From TrEMBL:
<dbReference type="InterPro" id="IPR008927">
    <property type="entry name" value="6-PGluconate_DH-like_C_sf"/>
</dbReference>
<dbReference type="InterPro" id="IPR029036">
    <property type="entry name" value="P5CR_dimer"/>
</dbReference>
<keyword id="KW-0641">Proline biosynthesis</keyword>
<dbReference type="Pfam" id="PF14748">
    <property type="entry name" value="P5CR_dimer"/>
</dbReference>
<feature type="domain" description="Pyrroline-5-carboxylate reductase catalytic N-terminal">
    <location>
        <begin position="6"/>
        <end position="100"/>
    </location>
</feature>
<dbReference type="InterPro" id="IPR036291">
    <property type="entry name" value="NAD(P)-bd_dom_sf"/>
</dbReference>
<dbReference type="Pfam" id="PF03807">
    <property type="entry name" value="F420_oxidored"/>
</dbReference>
<comment type="pathway">
    <text>Amino-acid biosynthesis; L-proline biosynthesis; L-proline from L-glutamate 5-semialdehyde: step 1/1.</text>
</comment>
<keyword id="KW-0560">Oxidoreductase</keyword>
<dbReference type="InterPro" id="IPR000304">
    <property type="entry name" value="Pyrroline-COOH_reductase"/>
</dbReference>
<comment type="function">
    <text>Catalyzes the reduction of 1-pyrroline-5-carboxylate (PCA) to L-proline.</text>
</comment>
<dbReference type="InterPro" id="IPR028939">
    <property type="entry name" value="P5C_Rdtase_cat_N"/>
</dbReference>
<dbReference type="InterPro" id="IPR053790">
    <property type="entry name" value="P5CR-like_CS"/>
</dbReference>
<feature type="region of interest" description="Disordered">
    <location>
        <begin position="218"/>
        <end position="240"/>
    </location>
</feature>
<dbReference type="GO" id="GO:0004735">
    <property type="term" value="F:pyrroline-5-carboxylate reductase activity"/>
</dbReference>
<protein>
    <recommendedName>
        <fullName>Pyrroline-5-carboxylate reductase</fullName>
        <ecNumber>1.5.1.2</ecNumber>
    </recommendedName>
</protein>
<feature type="domain" description="Pyrroline-5-carboxylate reductase dimerisation">
    <location>
        <begin position="164"/>
        <end position="268"/>
    </location>
</feature>
């Protein structure tokens, strides 16, 4: 892909994953600028990926065709207010990865309508296995939308949502989703240990099983429910485990948990817009 100059403002965990994915995909690290108030985070990025780094957000924006806003939602207002003049002067495509901040709010903080793509990525971007949901404002040109899509395609799959509310759902599914699977892995490893396996054996079996199940679900023409059926012999062992999960209302718990994530995204939109 022809890479634009990209500035990551607030390059912490999530930006680290995206930058790592981009560089591993062959993007020229010299096209990437990363900023942070914390010099040790910048040193790590520079050592691992040889990208340009600076503590000066204005300097990074001055180089950029695309500005990725990747600070925590709670400090976004202060950061944008400070950068408002630089953003207006450069007029880049802005990609915000912050959970729960509406494009309209970002535009208000900049002080004028801007081309904004809201992107909800996830940390497996580091391994080019990310999943991102994208939403664009009317100010985004076709070329800019394509640039945003290409950028995030370099680190995984991208799907556009038509309504901005869709980003709340994407956040609950794939943005936060890796943490749900990690929690499940932790629980399976602990349960394996409780059944007598040593910690390393329980861990390796758990992780390889997660990988194998995800690969099968992705590559098979069968739906996950059918793949599950094929593992579950009538009167066998899996049936006992599945029955136990269902008696514990796993499905409704998952629904409730993901609604809580989506509700928090909506709630943040209201709180942070003030
Ligand atoms: N971590 C995740 O899995 C995901 C995070 N997000 C979003 O990504 C954003 C960042 O999240 P994380 O990377 O987890 O947070 P983080 O805290 O690791 O990264 C933010 C970085 O911004 C730096 N920073 C603070 N003030 C700054 C300033 N004035 N100028 C420059 N840098 C500054 C901090 O030192 C920190 O390293 C959030 O808005 C979050 O909603 C979205 C999807 C997934
Ligand atoms: O927990 C959060 O708020 C962020 C957004 C999605 C994943 N991490």
């Amino acid at each position: 892909m022809t890479t634009p100059n990209i500035a990551f403002i607030g390059a912490g965990n999530m930006a680290f994953s995206i930058i790592g994915g981009l560089v591993k995909q062959g993007v020229d690290p010299k096209k990437i600028w990363a900023t942070n108030i914390d010099q040790s985070s910048l040193d790590k990025l520079e050592q691992e990926f040889q990208v340009n780094t600076t503590q000066d957000n204005h300097q990074a924006i001055a180089q950029a065709d695309v500005v990725v806003l990747s600070v925590k939602p709670q400090i976004m207002k202060d950061v944008i207010t400070d950068l408002s003049e630089s953003l207006k002067a450069k007029n880049p495509l802005i990609i915000s990865i912050a959970a729960g901040i509406k494009a309209e709010t970002l535009q208000e903080w900049v002080g004028q309508p801007m081309a904004i793509v809201r992107c909800m990525p996830n940390t497996p971007a580091l391994l080019q296995c990310g999943a991102s949901g994208l939403y664009k404002t009317p100010e985004v040109s076709d070329a800019q939308a394509e640039a945003a899509e290409q950028l995030m395609n370099a680190v995984g799959i991208t799907l556009w949502v038509k309504d901005e509310d869709g980003i709340d759902a994407v956040t609950a599914v794939s943005g936060s989703g890796p943490a749900y699977y990690f929690l499940f892995m932790e629980a399976m490893q602990q349960a394996g240990e409780a059944l007598g396996l040593d910690s390393q054996t329980a861990k390796q079996l758990t992780l390889q099983t997660a990988l194998g199940a995800a690969k099968m679900a992705l590559e098979s023409s069968d739906e996950p429910s059918e793949l599950r059926r094929k593992v579950t012999s009538p009167g066998g062992t899996t049936e006992q485990a599945i029955n136990t999960f269902q008696q514990g209302n796993l499905e409704s718990l998952v629904k409730e948990a993901m609604k809580a994530a989506s509700d928090r995204s909506k709630e943040l939109s209201k709180i942070l817009a003030q």
